[in-house]
UniProtKB/TrEMBL annotation, chain A:
Pfam families: Bac_globin. SUPFAM superfamilies: Globin-like. InterPro entries: Globin-like_sf, Globin/Proto, Hemoglobin_trunc. Keywords: Heme, Iron, Metal-binding, Signal, Transport. The keyword Heme applies. It comes from the Bacteria. Residues 1-23 form the signal peptide. This is Group 1 truncated hemoglobin. It comes from Rheinheimera maricola. The lineage of its organism: Bacteria, Pseudomonadati, Pseudomonadota, Gammaproteobacteria, Chromatiales. CDD domains: TrHb1_N.
Length: 142, 277
């Protein structure tokens, strides 16, 4: 078989895939399950952190209730929901923690696990990751 | 041989399953036929395995490429540290199915991640690499005009994961610039009688990640054409990769290696298995 035929077939399937994925009209906030969905993601991520020996020590002095509230606010605002994040900047709140690439990877891994468990669509997961990934420069090695 | 390696990998996997590093699944790429992390034929800026900052990782792989008149078998392994350093070894055995005989080549690779983070920075991840190649059956390459049985390839690779690009899926783009003297990536030696200069070639890959475990990719590899006895052409492939977990991944593809040593239109399958710890 000609490779060009295969390329064409691959492109065709890609086009098909894009065709059926007309971006849903709902906002990312709604795709994540709104207020309840974000509360579940936040709680799930807190459980992941609690069980993750690689990063749990960073939270030793954290006021968990406050952290939960701020994380939910932040995810809500980021995803276009009706909330206002009331915490400090990412730079301020991570200074002195010296968060490493491995720490950041571990947290993203935990978030992905939670989103998978909650059956959030791949598209919504990737939209959220696209919003969170660039925070790395403000959070890491401070 | 390959079956034995698969069994060995399987045993190691079950005993070492908990040692995976912190990197996100699939971000270590696969193992190229030259042993460096990448796609199938193009080295990427990513570092092999799942070791993130401060972590070690190791990989082992077996690959077979079967085209009309040749079969390439590759066995290799790598270790990496800190998501910055990658050391790799690969042994290639290129069987001349029609002519009889085989050509063997060993490749030592070193890669250093110089800037950017694949997932987290606007700047793509950049890595510098070198591949020291040593031909072990140089009589035939020498007879068809190759100058040297050893060569050093240098490359600069840039890789970037773009989130939410095609149907909500992530896309990984890679571009690699390589300086090389190799004929057919070194399988036919290095340089020719008249020319011992480096050639600058471009290599590229585009990968669509259907989800965290499945990816579809295309690759292109520009190649010099330095031996008078036969034409050499650019390589292309398409592949599907299945990252079963952070320990085991499989790649299957279709490769077009063009004309090799006078045998035209060499096309066929590509299969690869990689274990990572």
């Amino acid at each position: 078989m000609q490779l060009t035929t295969l390329f064409a077939t691959a492109l065709f399937f890609l086009a098909l895939l894009s065709g059926c994925s007309q971006r849903p009209e709902s906002s990312l906030y709604q795709q994540l399950g709104g207020e309840d969905g974000i509360a579940s993601i936040t709680d799930g991520l807190l459980r992941e952190i609690e069980q993750d020996q690689r990063i749990v020590h960073h939270f030793a002095d954290t006021d968990i209730e406050r952290f939960r509230k701020l994380l939910a606010e932040q995810l809500c605002e980021l995803s276009g929901g009706p909330c206002r994040y009331s915490g400090g900047t990412m730079q301020q709140s991570h200074t002195g923690f010296n968060i490493s690439l491995a720490d950041y990877d571990a947290l993203v891994d935990g978030l992905i696990k939670v989103m998978q468990q909650q059956k959030i669509s791949i598209s919504a997961q990737n939209q959220l990751l696209a919003l969170l990934a660039p925070m790395y420069k403000d959070i890491s090695y401070r | 041989m390959i079956l034995r390696l698969i069994l060995l990998l399987g045993c190691l996997l079950t005993s070492m399953a908990s040692l995976a590093g912190s990197k996100i699944i699939a971000t270590g790429g696969a193992s190229t036929i030259e042993g460096s992390a990448g796609g199938g034929i193009v080295p990427w800026a990513v570092i092999n395995g799942y070791g993130s900052s401060g972590e070690w990782a190791a990989t082992a792989f077996a690959t077979q490429v079967g085209v009309d008149d040749f079969t390439l078998n590759v066995l290799g392994a790598s270790i990496s540290y800190d998501n910055n350093w990658e050391w790799s070894l690969a042994r290639q055995t290129f069987k001349l199915d029609n002519l009889g005989g085989e050509l063997r080549q060993d490749i030592f690779g070193l890669k250093y991640h110089i800037a950017g983070e694949l997932l987290y920075t606007a700047l793509p991840q950049f890595s510098l690499g070198l591949q020291y190649k040593k031909h072990r059956d140089f009589a035939l390459p020498s007879a068809v005009g190759a100058r040297d049985d050893t060569g050093l390839d240098l490359y600069l690779a840039a890789s970037k994961m773009l989130f939410d690009q095609v149907a909500g899926r992530n896309v990984l783009l890679n571009a690699t610039l390589r300086a090389t003297k190799a004929n057919q990536t070194g399988l036919l030696g290095f340089g020719n009688a008249d020319n011992n200069d480096y050639q600058l070639v471009f290599e590229g890959s585009a990968v669509l990640l259907l989800n965290y475990n499945l990816a579809l990719g295309v690759e292109f590899k520009q190649k010099p054409n330095q031996l008078a006895f036969a034409n050499e052409q650019h390589w292309r492939d398409i592949f599907a990769a299945w990252f079963i977990n952070k320990q085991l991944s499989l790649v299957a593809g279709y490769a077009d290696l063009g004309s090799i040593a006078g045998f035209n239109s060499q096309q066929g399958y590509y299969v690869s298995i990689e274990g990572a710890w």
